[in-house]
Amino acid sequence: MEYANHLNEYAPAPSEAQVAEEVAQLKVAAKANENIDVYKFCYSTIDLTTLSCNDSVESVTKFAERVVEFYNAYPEIPNVASICVYPSFVETVGLAVDGSPMRITSVAGGFPASQTFLEVKMLEVAMAVENGADEVDIVLNVGKMLTEEYDEAANEVEILRSEAGEETVLKVIIESGALKTPELIRKASLLSMFAGADFVKTSTGKIDVAATPEAAVVMCHAIKDFYEKTGRKVGFKAAGGVRTAEDAALYYTIVKEILGEEWVTTDLFRIGASSAANNIISSIVGEPVKFF
Fold first, then answer.
1. Catalytic residue, candidates 137, 187, 198, 247
2. pTM score, two decimals?
3. Is 27 one of the catalytic residues?
4. For residue 114, is pLDDT > 90?
5. Angle at the Cα of 131 (from 292 to 70), degrees rounded to 5?
């Protein structure tokens, strides 16, 4: 399908100076959201992640079991939104969380570089879902974005959307740190939404520049514009570099101020994190905690 021509229906991205000015204002507004209630909500939006070369069935099982233990250890804090793992560990997590309401997210489709055969990406997505993934995070082909092969990049998303199935939440990682400019970040966000993304996500966390407030602002405005034209709500996920409760509160503020209260829900806002989980718990309870 041709997607690139639809970009002309949308206004261009704001300038870097405009984005910087808005981020400065949002950082001031975020101070009011640095409180326990917001931290509890932010914790509940986390896709708690282990994506290491050291992952094993044993380590992932212990990780997932620890997440389930959180329900009883801290009943006053809503648990994380999901556990995020490589496709080969989806079944492992499923066995460990069986009987709990915990959702399973799998990265797939050639994560983190998206540099493999489309057929391989399709099979990996399909197998992740078959093994029990509720949500799948794929990576937009950044190389094609940088060479302006916009239809090709979007068509890959469309195909992987089909492989995942409509019941599976599909998050598309645009790798904003590699795209760099507001214009490319906006185009990547819109193309992903045109092709069926349920969420647009900042980063893999595997390159030097991960989530930034500047990229989040551009992406959230793209989500807002897409919603105003189509009536379809797409979620936002910040991932990579979100380490503290204050970081989480800033992304919460960006989403709330640009997209509104309707987006302040785990169905439309997520944080991809590992170390941030302990830091947010610590900020909630008022003392250092290393639960994970």
1. 137
2. 0.96
3. no
4. yes
5. 20
